[in-house]
Amino acid sequence: MIEAEALTKRYGPLTAVDELSFQVEPGEILGFLGPNGAGKSTSLRILSGYLPPTSGRARIDGCDLQDASLEARKRIGYLPENFIAPPELRVGEYLRFRGRLKGLKSAEANRRVQEVVAALGLGNRVRQPFSALSKGYRQRVGLADALLANPPALLLDEPFGGLDPVQRQDFRDFLRELAQDGKAILFSSHVLPEVEEIADRVLIIHHGKTRADSELTRLQERALNEAPVQFRTSDVEGKLLGDLKAFLHETENLSLEQSAGTYRVLPENAARRQALFRWLATQPVEVLEFRTLTPTLDDLFRSMTEEVPA
Amino acid sequence: MRAFRALFMREVWSLCVSPFSFVLLGFWYLLNGIFFTYLLSSETIRADVDGLPQYMFGSGVLVWLLLPAFPPLLTLRLFAEEHRLGTLEPLLTAPVRDIEVVLAKYLAACVFFLAFWAGVLALFIVLASFNVALDWSLIFSGFYGSLMISLLFLATGLWASAWGGNLLFAAAGGTAINFLLLFVPVLFDQQGNPLQGLAHAMNIPDMVDRGFTVGLLDSYALAYFPLVAGLFLFLTWVRLVSRRWVP
Amino acid sequence: MSSRRMRLGLLTLLAAAAGTSVVIITLSVLVRPEARVRWDVSSHGQAGVSERTAEALSSLPEGTRAIAFLRPEDARLTFNGNLVYPRAFARLRSLLEDARIRARGKLELIVLEEFGSPVDWTRWETDLEREPLEVLILDTPGEGRRKFIFNELFTSTDPTPDGQPARLVQERVDSALGDAAIRLVTSKPVRAGIVNGYGQPRTNAERGLRPLIRLIRSEGLDTVEVTGPDTKEEFDLLVVAGQTAPFQQGDLVAAESWISAGKPLFLALGPTAPVEVVQQWNQLLAPAGLRFDTGLVCEARPRAGALPGNSTVATLDISSSQLSGQHPATQVLAESGRAQGLLAARPLALEGGSNNYLRTSLILSSADAWADHDRDYAPSPGEARKSFPLAAAAELWQSEQPLQTGRTVTLGSVASLTGPQLPFAQEFVSGSLRWLAGQDAAPSGLVSLTSLPLRIERADQVRITNLVTLGLPGFTLLLALMVYWRRRR
What we know:
The structure holds 3 protein chains of 3 kinds.
Chain A: E1 2-11, E2 14-24, E3 29-33, H1 40-48, E4 55-60, E5 63-64, H2 69-74, E6 76-79, H3 91-101, H4 106-119, H5 135-147, E7 153-157, H6 165-180, E8 184-189, H7 192-198, E9 201-206, E10 209-215, H8 216-225, E11 229-233, H9 240-247, H10 250-253, E12 257-259, E13 262-265, H11 270-281, E14 287-292, H12 297-307
Parallel strand pairs in A: 3-8, 3-9, 6-7, 7-8
Antiparallel strand pairs in A: 1-2, 1-4, 4-5, 9-10, 11-13, 11-14, 12-13
Chain B: H1 2-16, H2 19-40, H3 43-47, H4 52-59, H5 61-75, H6 77-85, H7 88-92, H8 98-128, H9 136-161, H10 167-188, H11 196-201, H12 204-209, E1 216-218, H13 219-245
Chain C: H1 2-30, E1 38-40, H2 51-58, E2 64-70, H3 85-102, E3 107-113, H4 118-127, E4 134-139, E5 145-149, H5 150-153, E6 154-156, E7 168-171, H6 173-185, E8 191-195, H7 210-218, E9 222-226, E10 237-241, H8 249-260, E11 265-268, H9 275-284, E12 290-292, E13 296-298, E14 315-318, H10 331-335, E15 340-343, E16 348-350, E17 357-364, E18 370-372, E19 389-396, E20 408-411, H11 422-436, E21 447-448, H12 458-488
């Protein structure tokens, strides 16, 4: 549904997006993750048809954004970051105008406005001017706008910004419902828990480059694989250290720590972690605690985005 | 066409509910009203009331000074302000052609600017209500000429507005272009100047003073204003669409 | 991809250049005089030059120039205030620009203004041998050149001692241009022979017939001064004004054969013309049925301070209703409500004559006029009050050649054709000359520029001021406040 093929965007010497490729299928929610300035908004602007890529292709529902921009834009609901509507217009006026702009007939536009307004809890705000709305309500108006023409693809740039926890939860539920309706949703965020809670798949970019493109469970598996273990023993003198070093492979040795009978080891993989556990059981020390320090996606994200120097 | 109509209606509506437009309109009425009152007490008009349209629509210094400045003030909100606020992005990512955006905004500004000139026409109606005999043929002809110039100046204003979110640039740029269009040809339309032919063909005050305000409509003048306005609209469109063309 | 960026950037520039080129090319086609159409939407329909003038100008040879010298030179017209020149020059420029366009590229317009280059002004002045007060020169590539002084194109009132400035009254730029163009393109223009050998007023004096000769020329006619009709000079129209001695035999015979040949004649004899002269002409014009009567036509005019015997009683105001609306010479004047004025006129009579002639009274006095015979300038018992013909025209029913139609105009006044009086009868004379020269359809060419003064009471003006400077802007600002307030709720 949403396809990016080697998308690149350069501003002079700066490469904002570098050979970005991915697909979002109908019913799928792709979390677009990256720190500020990673190129998320630029990528979404390219996908919305607002900016042309320096190279690469983008397609929405098979329509190329360069060659059939209008057709592609008909299939997109786009919520820009920090969405803003003309301040002099009332919410209802704005949404009706947007509905008509997106090709809905007058009656249909009115009906759709009522539907999205009800779905997003904007009912008591339709007569208010946009300028009088709080940040959360503005985001809702933006989302209502994106949903008006019932497009098959949604591009949401930082949709959770400015929402309070209750609003976030409502919003997440709403997005899930939309995905269940078969919409392809691509949303960007720099807050991992948001992505964790809702995305089926996550695309991590940093300095415009893809750092990871994977399903969340795989990422969690990977995190588990790469988790260090920490064990506390009665061996306060460190007698075990020599044998432990001998047991560990070269790569694992490097991560060995020891203080007052507590050791931290980064095993090569899960099998080695189990082997370590069995080996410890055979040693003449009392194992007081054995703990796998499972990293959160946040840690993983941090490790991924810190690897490459800026 | 539906998108165009929606955009046109929205722009007209936005102009109609924007206090800034009304302040601009009120200021225009005030300055024209003062000028009109001044003319009524001037020796020239007291001697010949038929000279009034000539001064209000043609040779009037105040009108020539106001006219280049007001259309860009009106059009600056059409692109520059949208750009500044960030409302342009939702607009340009909607399924609407760039040319529709340009034309809808331009036509909306034209429709609203009619209210500016309707106020000037109202000055004559006020005068006529005091039993002053007026030559309406000259008034309407002059009025038509002023509308033509306004068409052009709104188009240049729109072009200046399409260059980014700097409101000062949009207003000052549009005004500067209008002044250039208005007065540079006059400077070169002098006997013996090698560029006189070209300058004369672009001499707007001449087209007005020797045409519209004396009751003479010329096919060239009637074509000049829409064509040059069309050129600026085309340039606005190129400016807008090149955003998609140029990576 | 930098090549793509370049390609697209170039494409943008090309599009802009292409658009500009299309507009420039289209405009350069449309600006050509041949491609232009002009509509006169003014209520009076005289905002531009007439079809006749446009046609005449478009038949001019290529390279003809109209050079306008727009500088106020007559101090009299700027005394007490300058209301004449700005309006006159604006009008002249509009008409010349219209003429230039409608001449289909045949006419080059050069406008030299007061604040333009003095060097240019002097150069053109020298090149064209311009005299002071000449405001327009029509110059063809050949020898043809026609110069117009300001007063030839515009008439104005004088400034008054009580501080009123001079005002513009009329202009005849269109007809003057048209006539000049016709004259310049016609290889042999109609030529008027002006008789000066029988005690006529001097033809070289401003208070004599010089203004009349100027008027004849401005109507596009060539002039030649002759002592009498019996001359070797060739001309098409005989003009006799203010003859004070009877023709000698040769001239009498020539005059008789001129009339019998049906050639055009303009004849003006005032009340002081000797009896012999009047009798001679009455005999000559007997077949046409035109006759000069005796006496001085007087009108008691309710003018304060006018004394009996004062010439004011001999000053005749001719309203448009006293002009013939049926005759081509005066039809336009009668229809457009143009008044004329005559000074010291003798009555005419339209009686007898051959049935071959059609006779028309062109100007009638008012019904209160009387023909004064006893020089008391008051209606005496034998001097009945009635309407007298003051100018008349005769024409043959049938004619074979254009200039042998037997067209004759007689006028009972000579004073009206001289010096300062001519402007009051100028339109009538112009119309008559046109008719005599066979230009029946041509209008007199005078366009009224009488300004409509603004007359409003002081109180009304205050009301208007309040309405337009407070009412309208105030209402708009109030509307702005209301909109703001309502939309904020």
